[in-house]
Amino acid sequence: MSGFAATVADPETEIAEISGHLNVEHAQLVRIVERALDDGQWVGHGIHTPTQWVALRAGVSPARAKLIVRVAERGSSFTAVFAAFEAGELTLDQVAEV
């Protein structure tokens, strides 16, 4: 175990790095949902709402799907915020609060 411990970075650094990657991935997911909302690709048999579609396709909770849809619906309104989101500087939760 001592060899493994020597190769592990500081946990705070690792968390920050992984969080940045997650933020970028969440931004990409939001952009995909934004496109699906714009062109109606979320519509399908048995699908009643965009939130239902996101929950099903992304495997997230309905509450998380609702948040993603809410952010996607406002994506083009906050270009500076979305630029920071896409750069990994803001989280999905932070963008949702704007």
Comma- or semicolon-separated keywords:
mainly alpha; 98 residues; 71% helix
Secondary structure: elements and pairs:
Elements: H1 2-7, H2 11-39, H3 50-58, H4 62-73, H5 79-86, H6 92-97
Can you summarize the main beta sheet?
Answer: none
Structural class: mainly alpha
Q: Regions with pLDDT < 50 over 5+ consecutive residues?
A: none
Order of helices and strands: HHHHHH
Task: Please compute the radius of gyration using only Cα atoms.
Answer: 17 Å
Oligomer: single chain
Give a description of the structure.
With 98 residues, the protein is an all-alpha fold. It is built from six helices and no strands. It has helices at residues 2-7, 11-39, 50-58, 62-73, 79-86, 92-97. Helix 2 crosses helix 4 and helix 3 packs across helix 4 (62-73). The chain is globular. The N and C termini lie far apart (44 Å). The mean pLDDT is 92.
Please sum up the structure shown.
The protein has 98 residues and is an all-alpha fold. The chain has six helices and no strands. 71% of the residues lie in helices and 0% in strands.
